[in-house]
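Run log // design_07
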């Protein structure tokens, strides 16, 4: 199977060598889905540092890995809520950097919490969309 694509400014040729007997379109979609799964694993390992199991006990490392998996699920949910915005296709590391690692002032009153973001924050609209959902 061979796929050739002409993108603005460059060619995008892809080759798949396999012994599976699918038709070319089904085969390409199969391998794209597999690659997408591998990208999610890479995000969990690199962006959320789930490969860091430096505790000396198995239980502590298992608990740490479970916390990383929970963070992965939460950030994936955030990414799904960002559909229709320019952050919809961001990696989990980019979402962490652009939406979570920001300076804010948290004010607490008797009935509510008020989060004050910087006036010039470039992703304030996306944060408001997330918090309103």
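design_07 sequence
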């Amino acid at each position: 199977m061979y796929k050739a694509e002409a993108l603005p400014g460059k060619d995008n040729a892809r080759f798949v060598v396999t012994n599976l007997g699918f038709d070319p379109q089904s085969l390409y979609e199969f391998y794209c889905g597999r690659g997408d799964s591998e990208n999610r694993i890479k995000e969990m390992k690199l962006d959320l540092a789930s490969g860091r199991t430096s505790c000396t006990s198995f239980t502590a490392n298992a608990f740490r890995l479970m916390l990383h998996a929970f963070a992965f699920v939460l950030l994936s949910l955030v990414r799904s809520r960002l559909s229709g915005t320019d952050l919809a296709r961001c990696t989990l590391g980019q979402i962490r950097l652009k939406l979570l690692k920001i300076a804010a002032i948290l004010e607490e009153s008797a009935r509510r919490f008020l989060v004050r973001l910087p006036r010039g924050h470039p992703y304030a609209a996306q944060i408001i969309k997330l918090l309103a959902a």
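Strands lie at 2-7, 10-15, 105-108, 113-116.
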